[in-house]
Design goal:
Blueprint (H helix, E strand, L loop, with lengths): L2 E6 L7 H8 L5 E4 L8 E5 L2 E5 L12 E4 L4 E2 L1 H11 L6 H4 E4 L3 E2 L2 H14 L11 H9 L14 H16 L8 H15 L3 E3 L1 H10 L4 E4 L24 H7 L6 E9 L2 E3 L12 H9 L12 E3 L1 E2 H11 L3 E5 L9 E10 L2 E3 L10 E9 L16 H14 L3 E5 L7 E3 L5
Parallel strand pairs: 1-10, 1-11, 2-5, 2-10, 5-7, 6-8, 7-9, 11-15, 14-16, 15-19
Antiparallel strand pairs: 3-4, 12-13, 16-17, 16-18, 19-20
Helix pairs in contact: 2-7, 4-5, 4-6
Bound molecules: guanosine-5'-diphosphate, 6-O-phosphoryl inosine monophosphate and magnesium ion.
6-O-phosphoryl inosine monophosphate binds next to α5.
Length: about 425
């Protein structure tokens, strides 16, 4: 069997959690491959909203296995809080969640370093989620990290003290006050909880499952425009969010990849700093934020909102090799008289559809304007019943991107989903 990859094509928060949950019945295993508690993946069913940070979004299906792969960075304190919260809803979780021995740990001092570094940057800050992501991946590539498998070592406490000591040395150069003990208690409780789970070499685990005919869905976090290589650097996260990241973040070969399922919102949002060509600072932006309830699932920050950016979407499709597009939040656009879609950029008077290297390029979006639809589409479950203006909207996107839109999400609930093709 091949491994399918579902990932975000914009600046994160595209609705990955909702759709992973919705298509999980078609898979045996759901695996996270990068990111960490910076992710906030929301999903809803039975009128309850859940927000997952580290745990894969397949966890609510009692017959599915879930994997935290080697590419993920784990904060044990967040892990414990999340597992405690899930207990009433996700039975038998210690058996159904497997953790990679190779996943790096986020230490309390990584979180403090993240905060201290953002504080020092002032107005030029990244706008990180303050979860310690950047410092943890820095230690990983600097070959100084602690990994999940290390928690079983007899000298783990000593390894922890050594790593923390180095961080404290660095922090002494910052004008930043903090209370390490406040973080440490929950962190060590989390370490104890992690020991109750299966810590395995998940690269073998996943490849053996594939060989035995099991189907795997890799769940991305963040989005392509936040990728450390291809996003709007330095206003990005610290991992490879693109499909190639699933290979390194789980230990699967490129030839094992099947479908790449790319998720995008019918408009764009971004939290944190950095370029956002179609951002709307006016009342239309405010309307998108209010109607779409655009507030961060991890930090609660208001998300910046703007029209759909097709050059950025096409860039993401190219980088990921997207084979199917899933569109979310289509319902949010209901009632807009006109809907704009950015088809190219004007940069210094030149029309282009390429994403520039420079972050400070003065980009003027060029828009195509389409007629909107008046009535609420959130109750529709069959594609044919969607308004003709809506079909024109998605037809335009499919033609521009040359990839079919096979799922349309019209609300946050699991059920509020239109499948254009039968899954598996
Ligand atoms: P993720 O990080 O990609 O999983 O996305 P988030 O959960 O951070 O943000 C998506 C938000 O939109 C959540 O509040 C979801 O409940 C909500 N959502 C997902 N799909 C839809 C949809 O089709 N329509 C509406 N109105 N909300 C949606
Ligand atoms: P999900 O998986 C949206 C953004 C932060 C910041 C930048 C770097 O829910 O889509 P970091 O804490 O990673 O060092 O922050 O990346 N960011 C996200 N934005 N959704 C996310 O995850 C994000 N994870 C990080 O706001 O701009
Ligand atoms: Mg999110």
């Amino acid at each position: 069997m091949k491994i399918d990859i579902l990932l975000g094509l914009q600046w994160g928060d595209e609705g990955k959690g909702k759709l992973v949950d919705a298509i999980s019945p078609g898979y045996d295993v759901i695996a996270r491959f990068q990111g960490g508690p910076n992710a906030g993946h929301s999903l809803e069913f039975n009128n309850i909203k859940h927000i997952l940070h580290l745990i894969p979004s397949g966890i609510f299906h009692p017959d599915k296995m879930n994997v935290i792969g080697n590419g993920v960075v784990i904060d044990p304190a967040v892990f414990k809080t999340e597992i405690d919260g899930l207990a009433p809803y996700a039975p038998d979780i210690t058996r159904r969640l497997v953790i990679s021995t190779r996943a790096n740990l986020i230490l309390p001092t990584h979180r403090i370093l993240d905060a201290a570094s953002e504080h020092r940057k002032g107005t030029s800050k990244i706008g990180s989620t303050l979860k310690g992501i950047g410092p943890a991946y820095t230690d990983k590539t600097g070959r100084a990290g602690l990994r999940a498998g290390d928690i079983m070592r007899h000298n783990f406490r000593q390894l922890y003290e050594e790593a923390t000591g180095k961080h404290l040395e660095t922090l002494s150069g910052f004008d930043f006050t903090f209370n390490l003990a406040e973080y440490e208690k929950g962190w060590f409780e989390g370490i104890e909880m992690m020991k109750e789970f299966q810590l395995v070499n998940t690269e073998y685990y996943i490849n053996r499952l594939m060989t035995s005919g099991k189907s795997i869905l890799a769940e991305g976090a963040q989005g392509t425009m936040l990728d450390v290589d291809f996003g709007t650097y330095p206003f990005v996260t610290s991992s490879n969010t693109v499909s190639a990241g699933a290979c390194t973040g789980l230990g699967v070969a490129p030839a094992s990849v099947g479908d790449v399922l790319g998720i995008f919102k019918a408009y764009c949002t971004r939290v944190g700093s950095g370029p956002f060509p179609t951002e709307l600072g006016d009342e239309t932006g405010a309307r998108l934020r209010d109607t779409g309830r655009e507030y961060g699932a991890t930090t609660g920050r208001p998300r910046r909102c703007g029209w759909l950016d097709l050059p950025a979407l096409k860039y993401a499709i190219m980088l990921n090799g997207v084979t199917q597009l899933y569109m979310t939040k289509a319902d949010v656009l209901s009632g807009f008289e006109k809907i704009k879609i950015c088809t190219s950029y004007k940069i210094n008077g030149t029309d282009t559809a390429d994403i520039p290297f420079e972050n400070d390029a003065a980009i003027e979006p060029v828009y195509k304007e389409l007629g909107g639809w008046t009535h609420d589409i959130s109750g529709i479950r069959e594609f044919d019943r969607l308004p003709s203006e809506f079909k024109r909207f998605i037809g335009f996107i499919e033609e521009y991107c040359n990839v079919p839109i096979t799922i349309i999400s019209v609300g946050p609930d699991r059920e509020e989903t239109i499948f254009r093709v039968k899954l598996l």
